[in-house]
Specification:
The chain folds into three domains: about 55 residues; about 80 residues; about 120 residues, Alpha-Beta Plaits, CATH 3.30.70. Helix content is about 55%, strand content about 10%. The protein has a six-stranded mixed beta sheet, sandwiched between helices. Strand 5, helix 10 and strand 6 form a beta-alpha-beta unit. This is GGDEF domain-containing protein, diguanylate cyclase (C-di-GMP synthetase) or its enzymatically inactive variants. Keywords: Membrane, Transmembrane, Transmembrane helix.
Length: about 290
């Protein structure tokens, strides 16, 4: 899942090959488009990391398809074999409307090859391209289903104790049993913060957690932390140290696990909470 090193190498190799083709281009527009492709591949490779942020902005995702379409439309006789790249583009994660756009661009650029290819090969190329695009689309759907399943059992960031909500729901029962068995204090600390600060804050929090403690992403603006302490007093001290390390605008809600009735209810209560910190003192205390 995290084989970014191999992907980075492949992107850099592709960038080098396209750069070599750009150097030999005779047409200025052709060279400009090839250099733009090279830059896109190189920047993507350099910024591809194990962090949560990748180049998923809509404009950045659109660029390779638009560049490929422009290249095939302006100089079809020089890049006819690049038609097959449409099948590869469909394999990348993208919203449905972008899949439709790539399909339309593929059809338009295939039509532009009519004067380059004879009638019979032109139709054959179209049929083969359609088949490969269907295979690419099916592969994309399979990868998306695999990623969805993986998110429910894998850490959200490689090497970080940051897990999805589904993992927290499973861990709550386990930690309740462990707290009873070992006579320790287990507490769920919910944090509400601006979405853009969620992952940087999660990275900071991991330095304040024990190796057996985890952080959970409940939604785009809510983090959950399971604190396991010797007693309630130690838990309060640790909680305060965590809160002191955070920004002032973060709202917190502390719920000892014996008093936790519903994770969804507590999450909704946090979103409506006025004071920066609220500590639940009984199972019926809302």
């Amino acid at each position: 899942m995290y084989k970014t090193g191999l992907l980075r190498i492949n992107l850099l190799v592709a960038a080098i090959l396209i750069a070599l083709r750009a150097i030999t281009a005779d047409v200025a527009v052709d060279a400009a488009l090839l250099w733009a492709m090279t830059a896109w591949l190189a920047v993507t490779a350099m910024r591809l990391t194990l962090r949560h942020r990748r180049f998923t902005a809509t404009l950045w995702q659109l660029l390779p398809g638009l560049l490929l379409a422009a290249l095939l439309w302006t100089t079809p006789e020089r890049h006819v074999t690049w038609l097959w790249a449409w099948a590869i583009l469909l394999m990348w994660p993208q919203p449905p409307w972008m899949l439709v756009l790539h399909g339309v661009l593929a059809a338009v650029t295939w039509y532009a090859q009519h004067d380059v290819l004879r009638d019979e090969p032109w139709w054959l190329v179209g049929l083969l391209l359609a088949g490969l695009m269907v295979l690419g689309l099916s592969r994309s759907r399979a990868l998306q289903a695999w990623r969805f399943a993986a998110r429910h059992r894998a850490s959200l960031i490689a090497g970080w104790p940051l897990w999805p909500r589904a993992q927290l729901e499973r861990d709550l029962d386990r930690e309740r049993r462990r707290a009873t068995r070992e006579s320790v204090h287990a507490e769920l600390l919910l944090l509400r913060l601006p979405p853009r600060r969620l992952f940087p804050l999660a990275g900071r929090l991991r330095h304040h957690l024990q190796r057996f403690e985890n952080c959970y992403r409940l939604d785009r603006g809510t983090l959950g932390i399971l604190l396991i302490s010797r007693d309630a007093e130690q838990s309060a001290q640790r909680r305060q140290r965590l809160l002191d390390a955070l920004e002032p605008q973060v709202k917190a809600r502390a719920i000892p696990l014996p008093y936790l009735v519903s994770l969804t209810t507590e999450q909704h209560a946090l979103s409506r909470q006025s004071p920066p910190l609220w500590i639940k003192e009984s199972a019926t205390n809302a």
